[in-house]
Amino acid sequence: MPFMHPLRPNIQARISIFLFALGALSAFTASHPLSADAFNVIVVKSAELRPYQDALRGFRDACNCDAQELKLEEDEGGENILRKSPDAVVAIGTTVFKKVRAIEGLPVIYTMVMPSETGSAMPANI
């Protein structure tokens, strides 16, 4: 039996989830009546880790939208995001996902979140 690194299945699952999220955003942007120039996405990261930065760079390359990065303070929730009136929110990491999953009324896309943290009953906008 070949040796398999213990993190490899986890990384493959994260990549699959990220690609699914990109596909979902692509479907949303294709059906959204606004032009690509007017499509505004707020991206929040829970840490300045290289994988998170790579995910953000990949999202920006694929999105063809205005992706603004916003840092949430430790005691902050999604209110600061809603004040900016984005068309969608992208959460990179478990910590910020926990903060933004309560947002209603606009698409919330997440990546690099532990599956145990997502819960089983997600609202339709996530």
Give the SSE layout:
Layout: H1 8-31, E1 40-45, H2 50-63, E2 66-69, H3 79-83, E3 88-92, H4 94-100, E4 108-111, H5 115-118
Parallel strand pairs: 1-2, 1-3, 3-4
Helix pairs in contact: 1-2
Your description of this structure?
The protein is of the alpha/beta class and 126 residues long. It has a single domain (8-118), classed as 3-Layer(aba) Sandwich (Rossmann fold), CATH 3.40.50. Helix content is 43%, strand content 15%. The chain contains 5 helices and 4 strands; from the N terminus they run H-E-H-E-H-E-H-E-H. Strands 2-1-3-4 form a 4-stranded parallel beta sheet, with helices on both faces. Helix 4 (94-100) links the parallel strand 3 and strand 4 (108-111). Helix 1 runs parallel beside helix 2 (50-63).
Descriptors:
single chain, 126 residues, alpha/beta, Rossmann fold, 5 helices, 43% helix, 15% strand, globular
Short description:
This protein is an alpha/beta fold. The protein has a single domain, classed as 3-Layer(aba) Sandwich (Rossmann fold), CATH 3.40.50.2300.
Q: Let me know the average pLDDT.
A: 78
Name the shape in a single word. Answer: globular
- How much of the sequence lies in strands comes to 15-25%
- Broad CATH class: Alpha Beta
Number of domains: 1
Strand order of the largest sheet: 2-1-3-4
Q: Which structural class matches the secondary elements?
A: alpha/beta
Order of helices and strands: HEHEHEHEH
Q: In the CATH hierarchy, what is the architecture at level 2?
A: 3-Layer(aba) Sandwich
Low-confidence stretches: none
